[in-house]
Design a protein that fits this description.
Largest sheet: 5 strands, mixed
Shape: flat
Radius of gyration: 41 Å
Number of domains: 3
Strand order of the largest sheet: 7-6-5-15-9
Number of strands: 15
CATH architecture of the largest domain: Beta Barrel
Structural class: alpha+beta
CATH class of the largest domain: Mainly Beta
Strand content: 15-25%
CATH superfamily of the largest domain: L,D-transpeptidase catalytic domain-like
Amino acid sequence: MTTTGRIIVLVVAAAALVTLTLIGMHYLRPPEVLPPDKPPVEIETPPPVAAGAGDAKASLAGVPGAAPGGAGPVPAGPGEAAADDGLALAASGRIIQAQVRLSEALRAGVDGPKGKAVREALGNLAGRAQLSGAKLPDDPYSKSYPVVKGDSVTRIGAKFLIPNELVMKLNGLTAPAINAGQTLKLIQGPVNVEVFKGRHELQAWLGDICIRVYPIAVGKGNSTPEGSFVVKSKMKNPPYQPQHKAKSEFREGGAADNPLGSRWIDLGNHYGIHGTIDPASIGHDVSEGCIRLHNKDVEELWDMLVPGATKATLRP
C-alpha cells in the first residue's frame, strides 16, 4: 500500500473512533434531574378508626355547633342571633338598641328558654323607658311636651293617640289637672296588639318595638276568630250577659262571679279582650271565643289602647 493510501485509512479510522465516542457519551451519561415547578404537597391520611370506636355522631362530641353526620356547624337562626345581640345590649345598658334587636327576635319567632328571656327583657326595658316617667335622650318613641294654655289631659292624649289614663300614669298625676308651662312625658301612639292563639300570647307593640307580652286564654274549639280588628270601645267593670244564654246568667259589673273580670276591650261582633275570675284558665283554650288576661294585665293593657286607633291582629 502506498503512503497516501495508509494516510487515508488512518484518517477514516480516527473519524470513526471519534463518532463512536460521541455516541457512547450521549447514551451512557446519567439522566438530567429537573427541579419541580412547585413544592410537593403532603397529604395527611387519617388514622384508621378502630372497630367499636363509635359512629360519626360520637366523633363530633365536644365540637361546638357541629351537626350530626359531619355536616359542619349549624348556624344560628335570625331569631337566635337577634336575641343574643339584644340581651347583650340590654346587659350593657343600651336600652333602645336592645329593644329593637329583641323585638326583631320576637318577630322571628324565637322560643324556648331564650324566647322567655327575650320576652322578660322587653317588658323590663319598656318599664325603664317608654312606660316610665323617664325620657331617655335616644328614645324616639318618647316625647317631652310643654303644656300650653288651654291644654287638657284629654286633648293631649288625643293628639298623641294614647288614653288619658296613660298620660296621667306616665307623669305621676293623681288628677287630670295640668298647668301651662308644665312639661309632660308622653309616648307617640297608638299601641297596637298582636294575639297568637296557638302560643296563648298577646303582644303590645309601640311602632317597631314590643313593650309588653301577656299570657292569655282563647276560645275552645278554635272559636276565637282570626284577622285584623280595630278596638271599638272600652269599659271598666263590664256587666256580663252572654249571647244565647238565659238572663239568669247575667252578672253585674264588678260582681265577684262576673267572668269578664275588671276590664272589657271590645273588638266587635261580641268578641273582646277581658279579664277573668279564673286565673288557672290562662294558657288554655277555654273561653267562648274571647281573649282572657289576668286582671292586672288587662288593666295595664286597657290603659294603653285607644278606641278607633288601636289595631288588633289575631293570628293562629
